[in-house]
Amino acid sequence: ERGTMAPGSTTTTREATAMALLGLLCLQIGAANPLTTSRSISRPLSVRKASPYNLNRLSNGHMGPGQLDRDRDLRILATDSASEVQKTESRRSSKFGPIGKLYQRLFPSGSRKYEAKETVSKEYDAWADDGILQHYWGEHIHLGYYSPEDIKRGYKKKDFIAAKFEFIDKMVEWSGILDLPAGPKKVLDVGCGFGGTSRYLAKNYFQDGEVTGITISPNQIREATKYAKEQEVSNVKFELKDALNMDYPDNSFDVVWGLESGEHMPSKTKYVEEMTRVLKPGGVLVIGTWCQRDSPPIFTERENKELQFLYDEWAHPHFISINTYKKIMRATGKLEKVDSDDWNRYTLPSWRHSIWVGVYDPWIVFRKPWTWRKTLRDGICLERMHRAFDKGLMQYGMMKARKKAE
What we know:
By secondary structure, the protein is of the alpha/beta class. It has helices at 13-32, 52-56, 98-106, 117-130, 132-137, 148-153, 160-175, 196-204, 218-230, 268-278, 301-313, 322-331, 344-347, 349-360, 363-367, 372-390; strands at 43-49, 84-89, 186-190, 210-215, 236-240, 253-259, 279-292, 335-342, 394-403.
């Protein structure tokens, strides 16, 4: 696979067989899933002329599925000359291959379609309870970092968990946090998950400060607090809060950190605005999140369906592009030195590495048979995520900025 296997590297029979079966299943799903079938018929539900008012409400002139009208408070004039925007709906085909028929029977619809923030909370509570995600991903629910040397050697030779720690180190280095004036710092980790990043930052970068992690999952708060006590990390705390409606006073934190939480936010604009509001003047805002590519060129019907699958499988309202994030950040009027990068080249191996840790250690799933359907489906989605990022439909967005002095 491009960018993932070292020249001359060998693959065992077990690995080749497993990947072949997964690939076949993914191909069949491409024909069977109601959101991706080649026989799906899409028709426009609404076509709007791109008046200045409508363009002010769009994050891109052409938008992917599910994105229209999601960020209603966005007031940034789109830079392209779009004349219309379409939403589509799909209907499923009645013609499937044998594996496709089995898939449709087992998984008749999107498994975790976003409906409200409670959808996200419910799913992360379930992950915390079944223990599968923690077993494989450890305390960190985010992708890992793989250097060009790691990729050349073969990504599977790198420790899967160590790659996640390295991602945090690289994000700290890239963000400019280390350039802040010396002294105690208050740090906010927005969407902290099991608190792995919060604890790592508290132990390794802010020993004389305090790190606060927030999430909307009560079960994640429970697990994060438990880990902090076990690891004797006293300068970290975890709170149950909605990232789009935080009750912290303005100018509360020296650093606001958002790592793979923006994906679940129904309004990316409100997400950025709230983080900016609680950031102190001179402080650092840094975001790492999954993004879809820029548009134009307009998304094809196939791309729309692929994106819709990725939305509906893991409770994502929609994605936006890296450049749209930068527009939103600049539109606050309170941020300066706005910069970005695409870290797809460093994170792409994480998707398939996530699959292989399950192939090598499947026993926890066998011991918890009630989880096999979700685990299988997650494996399929991981592979489809890999393919979307590999061909450029998706990007790994890194954004940073400083808050202007008042």
